[in-house]
């Protein structure tokens, strides 16, 4: 039976796609979307390393059991047979491919999505260079051998040029050369490299954005000889519509902050409430990535400069962080999380001194107290260890929440504007939908409960009752603490004797 294909689907017909990082959050959504919507493609090749004693094949089988692959299992189960998996790793030369696997990849691949990276903002420089910079170099080396390569899409980040007031869709120069940093990381010992890292990174806040910036320069330098393209998503948030509204599988970025505050574990955050939140739903980002090779190859003339796409939300859809905070508090009262540690009402401030006082009183002090109780009862202590991770995470996030970001995303917007109505229905990037930001945040909250915390909807009445009790306890404790503080201040100053 002949199936009518849209222009984008027609482009992907009989194509072979190679993906690195397919086991990550965006990678899973990309794989699912390609299999579901570009169903006339020939093959998708992914590489995956063994993990926790599981082979790549068993990890793929586990991935297929995830809720996001449900519609493929129901409607197009045959598409799962179009996926070929090889054991591979971007930290190995030629991505760990050799012999028949390397030959199959280089002789058949048409499109590469290079998404593998370490996202650890607090990670050390050597690991970031090895994964994000040298890993990209290794992926390019394999792509150079591909006989039918039409597009190599390198996934970067919108925040990699943080020294720019306005970030345009172009590659920015940087004093450090990628090859120099690769050599430096190879011969210098870890201890010395860690010592000089703060000076190397400036003006970058972390090794992630620094290594990603260098990787962009490396990719750009291959543009004359290869069809390379750079895609820069902002903070990728849960799915807006597909494959499942609210789908998320990690605690990175806003999801982790939402859960931490909702559980009452995070009591204070450094956020400038006047600045806009820079997030993009994962399905919008993935649809953009899929359309990019089609758009690149339909052009009559190749662009003079390497194409760069800032995959960011439309200006009229961006909320201020203050609005996000207030919405989150309201939604959390409607859809509370189970068994929170404390009433979820974090302090939001830009004052670092005030924040540090709050962290000492409401993060560290309770953590040590609870660990002390666990010690008395002969239980394993964990709260201080959890708090250390939270403290590190909040420390690296504050650069993003205390900085005003400005992105120009004309090329990304043009992807949507150039699609016909059929493709617009399939590869949605519509920024003028009827659903509001409130609706989306409710889906994010429900997604965090369901997919991350595995909490059931029938538990909501109990969670709401628990929150009411927490509110009363919170008010009583704050009243007692403030009362005792005033009492001792008055006593110390001698003012108490006047009453």
From TrEMBL:
<keyword id="KW-0521">NADP</keyword>
<dbReference type="Pfam" id="PF07993">
    <property type="entry name" value="NAD_binding_4"/>
</dbReference>
<comment type="similarity">
    <text>Belongs to the fatty acyl-CoA reductase family.</text>
</comment>
<dbReference type="GO" id="GO:0080019">
    <property type="term" value="F:alcohol-forming very long-chain fatty acyl-CoA reductase activity"/>
</dbReference>
<dbReference type="GO" id="GO:0102965">
    <property type="term" value="F:alcohol-forming long-chain fatty acyl-CoA reductase activity"/>
</dbReference>
<dbReference type="InterPro" id="IPR033640">
    <property type="entry name" value="FAR_C"/>
</dbReference>
<dbReference type="GO" id="GO:0016020">
    <property type="term" value="C:membrane"/>
</dbReference>
<dbReference type="InterPro" id="IPR036291">
    <property type="entry name" value="NAD(P)-bd_dom_sf"/>
</dbReference>
<dbReference type="GO" id="GO:0035336">
    <property type="term" value="P:long-chain fatty-acyl-CoA metabolic process"/>
</dbReference>
<dbReference type="InterPro" id="IPR013120">
    <property type="entry name" value="FAR_NAD-bd"/>
</dbReference>
<dbReference type="Pfam" id="PF03015">
    <property type="entry name" value="Sterile"/>
</dbReference>
<keyword id="KW-0443">Lipid metabolism</keyword>
<comment type="function">
    <text>Catalyzes the reduction of fatty acyl-CoA to fatty alcohols.</text>
</comment>
<dbReference type="InterPro" id="IPR026055">
    <property type="entry name" value="FAR"/>
</dbReference>
<keyword id="KW-0560">Oxidoreductase</keyword>
<keyword id="KW-0444">Lipid biosynthesis</keyword>
<keyword id="KW-0812">Transmembrane</keyword>
<keyword id="KW-0472">Membrane</keyword>
<protein>
    <recommendedName>
        <fullName>Fatty acyl-CoA reductase</fullName>
        <ecNumber>1.2.1.84</ecNumber>
    </recommendedName>
</protein>
<feature type="domain" description="Fatty acyl-CoA reductase C-terminal">
    <location>
        <begin position="362"/>
        <end position="455"/>
    </location>
</feature>
<feature type="transmembrane region" description="Helical">
    <location>
        <begin position="361"/>
        <end position="378"/>
    </location>
</feature>
<feature type="transmembrane region" description="Helical">
    <location>
        <begin position="469"/>
        <end position="490"/>
    </location>
</feature>
<dbReference type="GO" id="GO:0005777">
    <property type="term" value="C:peroxisome"/>
</dbReference>
<keyword id="KW-1133">Transmembrane helix</keyword>
<feature type="domain" description="Thioester reductase (TE)">
    <location>
        <begin position="19"/>
        <end position="287"/>
    </location>
</feature>
